[in-house]
């Protein structure tokens, strides 16, 4: 399959570069926001000064600095606002990214060791060695004669070999399909995260400008909470992937320990691996909800509910396909032996 040869890391890096390339658009939007904030600052200061004069009260100067501080943030929005937030949160993303890379590397290493031990265990079984080794298969064929009984045994061996190879190809195809869905779910979350961050970054100066006006002060805190919440989608997703990888590493270590016993015959169906891949596909759609638990942001929860619903539908479909394919393959293998 062509899609399975995609380098998913490059796609995620492409989204990072897309975010950086879109940031200069903030400056164009800042010029518009300056005019909006300037008018708002004029009304903000004039209203409070005239209110204090009409009541014969002293003018409190400190609250009047608010529109000027917001205006300063708008003027240097890419550096002062986005640079500060990204600078604080980027170490969190770097830490979780290194964590998931380490766990994935360990999982690949143990998976290769387990596959080798499974092959050796199958070779130790005289009744099944010819299924995994062409040399053993040719050796058993050469030992047979041309009698009716030997011919029947030869036909049976060819049939078992064909069924076993077909089962291996089906399991490998289904495993690659689940891996494709798993990587696609991760890419979907990262793509939506990048899109939302770009929109919030470009229109951020307008939100800051509107926050100058009375009645729109909450716009500032809402923008900040949503930006941080969506920014945390990536580290939360990395933590989820690292946890899944760690669980699989522990299971691989347990399987490898059992395979040290020469009498142990492993089950090569990889059903547990497929189950955790399905869990991962569903779990990635829960990332927005988990991020909203860290910092509450209105609006992100509604998307999280829709994403969770889509994840359940996708998970049910993947589980149904997995059950049908796994059951069919397992049934044929049991009949074969």
UniProtKB/TrEMBL annotation:
Key words of the record: Membrane, Transmembrane, Transmembrane helix
Q: Which domain of life is it from?
A: Bacteria
Q: Which residues form the Conjugative transposon TraJ C-terminal domain?
A: 8-332
- Give TM regions: 29-47, 68-89, 195-216, 228-248, 268-287
**Which Pfam families does the record cross-reference, listed alphabetically?**
CtnDOT_TraJ
The yes or no answer to whether the keyword Oxidoreductase is present is: no
Q: Does the keyword Ribonucleoprotein apply?
A: no
Give start-end ranges for the coiled-coil region(s).
none
**UniProt protein name:** Conjugative transposon protein TraJ
């Amino acid at each position: 399959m062509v899609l399975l040869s995609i380098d998913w890391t490059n796609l995620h890096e492409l989204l990072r570069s897309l975010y950086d390339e879109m940031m200069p658009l903030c400056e164009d939007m800042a010029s518009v926001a300056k005019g909006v904030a300037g008018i708002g600052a004029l009304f903000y200061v004039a209203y409070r000064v005239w209110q204090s004069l009409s009541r014969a009260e002293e003018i409190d100067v400190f609250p009047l600095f608010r529109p000027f501080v917001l205006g300063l943030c708008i003027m240097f929005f890419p550096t002062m606002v986005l640079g500060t937030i990204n600078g604080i949160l980027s170490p969190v993303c770097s830490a979780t990214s290194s964590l998931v890379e380490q766990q994935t590397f360990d999982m690949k290493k143990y998976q290769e060791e387990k596959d080798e031990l499974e092959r050796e265990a199958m070779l130790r079984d005289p009744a099944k060695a010819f299924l995994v080794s062409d040399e053993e298969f040719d050796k058993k064929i050469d030992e047979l004669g041309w009698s009716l009984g030997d011919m029947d045994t030869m036909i049976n061996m060819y049939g078992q070999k064909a069924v076993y190879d077909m089962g291996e190809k089906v399991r490998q195809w289904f495993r690659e399909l689940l891996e494709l869905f798993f990587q696609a779910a991760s890419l979907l979350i990262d793509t939506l995260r990048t899109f939302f961050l770009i929109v919030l970054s470009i229109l951020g100066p307008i939100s800051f400008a509107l926050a100058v006006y009375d009645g729109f002060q909450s716009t500032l805190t809402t923008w900040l909470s949503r930006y941080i919440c969506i920014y945390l989608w990536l580290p939360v997703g990395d933590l989820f992937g690292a946890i899944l990888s760690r669980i699989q590493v522990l299971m691989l270590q347990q399987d490898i320990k059992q395979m040290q016993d020469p009498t142990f015959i492993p089950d090569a169906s990889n059903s547990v691996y497929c189950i955790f891949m399905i869990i991962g596909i569903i779990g990635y759609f829960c990332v927005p909800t988990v991020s909203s638990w860290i910092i509450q942001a209105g609006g992100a929860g509604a998307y999280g509910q829709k994403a969770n619903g889509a994840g359940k539908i996708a998970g049910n479909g993947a589980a149904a396909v997995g059950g049908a394919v796994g059951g069919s393959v397992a049934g044929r293998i049991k009949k074969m032996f």
